[in-house]
Amino acid sequence: MKKVRRALISVWDKAGLIPFVQGLRKLGIQIISTGGTAKLLKEQGIPVKEIAEFTGSPEMLGGRVKTLHPKVHGGILARREDREHLNQVKRLGLELIDLVVVNLYPFEATAAKRGVSLPELIEQIDIGGVALIRSAAKNFQSVGVVSRPSQYDTVLRELQRGGGRLSEATRLKLAVEAFTETAYYDSVIHQTLAHRAPSKGAAAAFPEKMILGASRRQLLRYGENPHQSGSWYQWSSISDRRDGFSQAKQLHGKELSFNNLLDLDAALQLAAAFTKPCAVIVKHMNPCGAACAGSLSAAFQRAFACDPLSAFGGIVGLNRPVDRAAAKAIAAAGFLECLIAPGYKADALKILRSKKNLRILQIPSSAFRRQERCMEMKQIGGGFLVQQPDNALSGPSRWRPATGFKPTIHQRRDLEFAWIVSKFVRSNAIVLAKGERTVGIGAGQASRVESVLSALKKAGVRAKGAVLASDGFFPKPDGPAAAVKVGIRAIVQPGGSIQDPEVIKVAQKARIPMYLTGERHFRH
Fold first, then answer.
1. What CATH number did the domain enclosing 500 receive?
2. Closest to 135 in 3D by CA, of 68, 195, 48
3. Which of 8, 41, 206, 293 has a C-alpha 20 to 30 A away from that of 359?
4. pLDDT category, 449, cuts 50, 70, 90?
């Protein structure tokens, strides 16, 4: 590449711009600029040729048309190694532009504001800036493109070391980053306008072409295992996918891991499903304890008591600000990896920070949103699957009684509690509950009866008098038979098995209530 002799600069975000342009001028690079950028540079005593002088045409339509001109794009797109291009440049009196420095109107920040009008949004759709970036990036073999203020120092240092030149490797890297900027920018515009477009049904939920716009929030130490690399991305600030951890703030502890984030999300979902004070403990994306109580401290102690062995190194989710009593209970529970809650009292936070290895996260109460999660995505070879979130959750008033036996008020309450928890347990899921707390959870077994046996084993003597919830139907009567044998006193399950009559007969014979929900909650 020949030396950079002329740079076009037009930026919205002016952070770090002045020292960068001053460095360009020391290298003898001519500066062409527009509007507010040109005004700022002149105020700093930097010689600037304004775009209207460069093109010979005034800005038009209230600034909508400034750089959309053949003299600008011809000067950028001309291939320096193409003789015919250079002949045309000379014949048409064009001036070559070797460096383009552009960042875009703040569309995403504007769209994220409450109550922003459509006309306001439209005026933040950058046209000229995107066109400049794309032209320069397309012609990266001859032109450098700087699309982020964070690139200024690196680019200026290389120009200084290279006598005003940028290597082809750097120009290619800058072009890739530039196309990333424009692709993300367009994805945010698409998402914003799509939300406002009058469309319904599957066509709106599952468009023919899926546009995903996300930015990296954090590089992780590794993925699920140390030999796997990992990173954390979050959706754009206007996306209906952006909730939960996009608003989380870490208050204490070392860096979060890949697995921490997965478990924290699972804990957050389950804790948010209850309106009473609730505590959940999650291991490997499965709850190993959950409870509701009159206070947060009691809820935590009851959740922990469900399975103290599995709770070791667990992830705790709470749906209330943490007070001193809850903090003392958590601190006394031994080693826990992470804690997430919608707030902390000052004295509670002081207690919790005494646990050196406990990662403490705070998330606004508004982010504890039940049944408002975004579309869910799961990758498979060659693509990914997309589904609506599992927002269905019927209550006892909609369940169909399968036997002639009615539950007590307490059993009815526990059945509803267990049914909610089962939605957040990996299938095949079996939840045993008593007193609005889990006493045994069976998760992820290949057969449902094995999940029943696992839950019963964890519950031990606590199974007697408890209720049972199953996320899917019982294909055979063996699961309910094992449960009633040890004293389970009520069952809720979806129903729908060809052996439903035999399954129901087990409950009928034991003289206990069994409800059929008509909905299942598989969680793969």
1. 3.40.140.20
2. 68
3. 293
4. very high
Q: Which helix (H) or strand (E) holds 479?
A: helix 478-485
8 Å CB contact between 513 and 491: yes
Looking at 168, 192, 216, which one is the last position of a domain?
192
Catalytic residues: 138, 284
Count structural domains, the chain.
3
Residue 322's CB is within 10 A of a number of other CB atoms, namely 27
> H/E element holding 514?
strand 514-516
Same domain, 178 and 300: no
Element (H, E) at 101: strand 99-103
Across the chain, what does the average pLDDT equal?
A: 88
Which residue type sits at 156? L
Q: Using CB atoms within 10 Å of the CB of residue 61, give its burial: 0 to 12 exposed, 13 to 18 middle, 19+ buried.
A: exposed
Q: Record the pTM.
A: 0.80
Tokens 């409800």, residue? 515
Examine the domain organization and report whether 47 and 178 are in the same domain: yes
Instruction: Specify which residues 249 forms β-bridges with.
Output: 362
- How far are the Cα atoms of 139, 142, 163, 354, 399 from residue 28, in angstroms, in the given order? 22, 18, 10, 58, 79
Whether the CB-CB separation of 102 and 10 falls below 8 Å is answered with yes
Length reported for the chain: 524
Strand order in the sheet with 438-442: 400-401, 514-516, 490-493, 467-470, 430-433, 438-442
| Enclosing domain of residue 156 | 6-192
User: What does DSSP say about strands 144-146 and 99-103: parallel, antiparallel, or unpaired?
Assistant: parallel
pLDDT digits (tens, 9 = 90+) for 226-275: 899 999 888 776 655 555 677 788 999 999 899 999 999 899 989 999 99
Residues with Cβ within 8 Å of residue 91, at least 6 apart in sequence: none
